[in-house]
């Protein structure tokens, strides 16, 4: 008789019809079930996995090899609680339910049983077909708007350097959108657009004190108050898109007087952002998290109203006087060489995750000397770019950081006396 039969059968092997003892009398001495171990604050252990499976299959695990039960840390308990809360929270209405949300439905039973209203909050189970997205992208390009692909059902770009790669070329657009159902992004700067983004508050978001007046519940209400204060009509007679969260995008053409408007967040007021140079918007026909962006008013974009332009115009910097650094005669070149070398050393010694910050700081420092006429801009930029590239920084990103640093440094130029 094998060792297992010797441990689990009667000595004669037939007194109980050949049945193992544990079926009628409990586990043999020295063995316990997993439940019995848990009640004693223990867990199976000390045996190979195959042996644990074998013993558990015939009625128990060895108590002499049991180990103390593991106790979860507070962080682990918090993570489990957070995960379970997410399983009980409906993605559609964001309400916690007393049951787990079925993944096959993607929403709670209340939302599933309620007919979907024809509002911007309507959730769609799938993205728009690629052919329809291609048609929309070509239509936007016909307007002269530069488009680029977004990740399917997402607001994030599907390509790097999206502002440079945005295009109106029909052939490039066809090649992109025949490859998959990418969303459509519009690069505002190359397209000559300024988009006013009127948002809606999140459930836990409260207005600041200056916007707590009755009747102000969204960015659209804030814009209406601004119009009333300025004595101007509400600028709703332009190209308009409703967002997935119920907000609104007003499209305007960028001023042509040489002004360079950039993105803003809250400059105009609560829940009002703007997108211009350096920004993009999600085009109508795209979806994000199952919520569609819809064209509300198909009109030619109006010029940005003058009163909004004045509010968005960057404030001029205070006048700056060049700061002259006096050095002994004959040491001007040595001083500049030391300044450049110190900046290059800072880039070379930058640790992981701090390279771009070090590059920006070096560009600001040398940008002051460039603005003061002490250094040549092209040569200095090339030296900084080469140092950053040797550390693994992408060239295009390095050049952008250097230009930004030079612009900041130019606000306080420095010159070196001969």
TrEMBL record:
Region (Disordered): 392-418
Record-linked SUPFAM superfamilies: Multiheme cytochromes, Prim-pol domain
Gene3D superfamilies in the cross-refs: Bifunctional DNA primase/polymerase, N-terminal
Alphabetical list of CDD domains matching this protein: Prim_Pol
The DNA primase/polymerase bifunctional N-terminal domain, residue ranges: 137-308
Signal peptide positions on this chain: none
Record NCBIfam families: QRL_CxxC_CxxC
Name of the protein in its database record: Bifunctional DNA primase/polymerase-like protein
Organism: Krasilnikovia cinnamomea
């Amino acid at each position: 008789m094998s060792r297992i039969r010797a441990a689990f059968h009667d000595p004669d092997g037939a007194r109980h019809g050949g049945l193992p003892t544990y079926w009628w009398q409990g586990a043999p001495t020295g063995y316990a079930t997993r439940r019995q171990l848990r009640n004693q604050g223990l867990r199976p252990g000390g045996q190979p996995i195959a042996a644990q499976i074998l013993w558990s299959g015939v009625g128990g695990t060895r108590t002499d090899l049991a180990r103390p039960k593991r106790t979860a840390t507070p962080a682990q308990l918090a993570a489990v609680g957070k995960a379970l809360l997410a399983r009980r929270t409906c993605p559609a209405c964001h309400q916690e339910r007393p049951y787990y949300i079925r993944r096959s439905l993607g929403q709670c039973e209340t939302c599933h049983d309620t007919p979907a209203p024809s509002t911007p909050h309507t959730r769609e189970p799938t993205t728009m077909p690629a052919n329809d997205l291609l048609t929309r992208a070509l239509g936007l390009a016909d307007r002269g708007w530069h488009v680029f692909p977004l990740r399917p059902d997402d607001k994030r770009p599907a390509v790097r350097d999206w502002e440079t790669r945005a295009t109106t070329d029909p052939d490039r657009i066809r090649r992109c959108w025949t490859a998959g159902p990418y969303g459509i992004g519009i690069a505002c700067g190359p397209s000559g657009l300024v988009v006013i983004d009127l948002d809606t508050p999140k459930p836990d978001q409260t207005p600041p004190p200056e916007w707590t007046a009755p009747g102000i519940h969204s960015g659209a209400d804030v814009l209406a108050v601004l119009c009333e204060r300025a004595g101007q009509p509400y600028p709703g007679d332009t190209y308009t898109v409703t967002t997935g969260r119920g907000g609104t995008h007003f499209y305007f053409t960028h001023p042509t007087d040489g002004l360079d408007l950039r993105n803003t967040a809250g400059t105009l007021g609560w829940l009002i952002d703007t997108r211009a140079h350096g920004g993009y918007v999600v085009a109508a026909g795209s979806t994000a998290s199952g919520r569609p962006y819809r064209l509300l008013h198909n009109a030619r974009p109006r010029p940005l109203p003058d009163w909004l332009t004045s509010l968005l115009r960057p404030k001029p910097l205070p006048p700056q006087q060049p700061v002259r650094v006096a050095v002994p005669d004959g040491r001007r070149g040595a001083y500049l060489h030391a300044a450049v070398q110190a900046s290059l050393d800072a880039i070379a010694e930058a640790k992981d995750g701090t390279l771009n910050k070090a590059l920006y700081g070096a560009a600001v420092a040398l940008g002051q000397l460039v603005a003061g006429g002490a250094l040549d801009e092209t040569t200095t930029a090339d030296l900084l770019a080469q140092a950053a590239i040797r550390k693994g920084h992408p060239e295009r990103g390095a050049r952008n950081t250097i230009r930004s640093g030079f612009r900041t440094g130019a606000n306080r130029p420095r010159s070196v006396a001969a």
